[in-house]
Amino acid sequence: MLTRLKKLDKVKLVNTIVLGLLSMFFLIPLIWMVSTAFKYESDVFVFPIEWIPRRINVVNNFKEVWFGDIPFYLFYWNSIKIAGSTTVITIFISSMAAFSFSKLRFKGRNLLFFTLISLMIIPEQSTLVPRFLLIRTMGLYNTHGALIFMAMFSIYFTFLMRQFMLSIEDDYIEAAKIDGANYFRIYWQVILPLCKPILATVGIIKFIWTWNDYQNPLIFLLSKELYPITMGMQLFQDDFADSYAVLMMASLSAILPLVIIFIILQKQVIEGISLGGVKG
Amino acid sequence: MLEDKKILKATKKTGLSAERRKEAIVGWLFLTPEIIGMVLLYVLPIIFAVLLSFTEWNLVGGLSEIRFVGLDNFVKMFSDERVFLALRNNLVYTVVVVPVSMIIALVLATLINSRVHMKSFFKVAFFIPYISSIIAVGAIWRALYHPSQGPINQLLSSIGVSNLPGWLADTSTSLLAIIIISIWTQIGYVVVIYLAGLANISQEIYEAAEMDGATSLQKFYKITFPLLAPTHMFLAITLLITSFKVFDLIKFLTNGGPINSSTVLVYLIYQEGFQRFNMGYASAISILLFTVVATLTYLTWKLQNSKIFGG
Description:
The complex is a heterodimer of chains A (280) and B (311).
Chain A: H1 2-37, H2 58-67, H3 72-103, H4 109-119, H5 128-137, H6 144-151, H7 155-166, H8 170-178, H9 183-194, H10 196-211, H11 215-220, H12 229-239, H13 244-264, H14 266-278
Chain B: H1 2-14, H2 17-52, E1 55-56, E2 67-68, H3 72-79, H4 81-113, H5 119-131, H6 134-144, H7 151-158, H8 174-199, H9 203-211, H10 216-227, H11 229-244, H12 248-253, H13 265-275, H14 279-304
Antiparallel strand pairs in B: 1-2
Helix pairs in contact in B: 4-8, 4-11, 5-8, 8-11, 11-14, 13-14
């Protein structure tokens, strides 16, 4: 028994070492970014790589990114604003639709649901030109409104929420009705509180996706002061093409908030990502 | 369903049809924002894209310049070398990225799922690239790929490679450079999906196999791999579709170059529509993209025999 246990532990150790080596391939670029963000420009490409910089220039790099000619704090604020409002609005629109699809009975409901689901087949890149014309007609071109408007409807999230709501017992609703609650109160005071787990999952994923969106700001924004962080990174690359220490500080600043959110809420993020995959 | 009928009967009897009507009105009310969004952002745009693909229209000239040209754009498309290159690059990208990501991720997921220390650390480690902004990731790799001073080429030259690749700056390696970053970025996603698939396999099957004296390798080939079939299928098609939508890294790092060596369909749409303002031609390419992606998506649903309406 004892020898068997020892043997198994050896397997566990070997597995861990193999996995550890493989994970280095994924972590090294990120570690390189962090280390470079602390360096003087002239030390960036020193070989063999100085993983722990000999001379530290982090304060100047930080100042250059956050308080230099390109206003990083402004891009940050824009990203928070865009991703934040998109997330909140999406949660409302999708949960309202999901409530109707799962808990209210009326003619044409299932046909409509089927139609919505089949719209998912349209890749958003194939409708860029007409959407551009629409946004211009609506007077939203070059506004945050354009980005929020285009991201606040989500069939996928409506679908996920509907699935979740279907698992809620109708008894809750019947009880609320007997207490004299109308449908709006049922949605607000009964359904939404019960849906907290799925709302959290969907909200985090939406926030991450919107934060990382590059294509829509590229096409629908013109003014630099409206840029979110992804477009800000583009400006940095254009202006500081060869200042890798500053660029890596900018990259680190762009990635860090998401990594922190992810580490704190990893259960929800991973669950949200895998929800789509286990179905079917 | 039975419940529905009962309620319907009851309402008829007690004359509560006003209540049913109210439920229907509220139902449509709750759906209104979603429906408006879908009509404005999906239904009308796709119809417009089709219509525009039969026209020649430079946005700069205004609405009066719009001209019906029949199938001209499509004829032009099939003789346009860039479209051919873009399609070819999309295909090469897909054929490499999809299987390589799946194989690496399956190995990683199986290891994470086995007896291993620091399980949760590994889950996080592989996932960080996936949630990181692709643009920040692009900036990191641009530095790593630096042809003369970058760490990758310095490492290659230190182990004696004399013919150093130019990575993003060379027509023969630009697409490969993009492919490596894409795989690195999306592995975390594929691992997570595989882990979810692995969690669905009952432990009892493994225990039974162990009783019969199966080795770890046998267990993998005879149990794990075949039982993951639905997951393989889901991933293959999801990754296939995302591969045809690749754009961000290419726009940020190569602009489709050098000399169109890394151009793809979505990049062409961007170039024609938003740099040259040829809205008609851009729409025709959009329709090509739509056809490819829609076909692939349709296949997913077909193969998954969707449980969407099972509810």
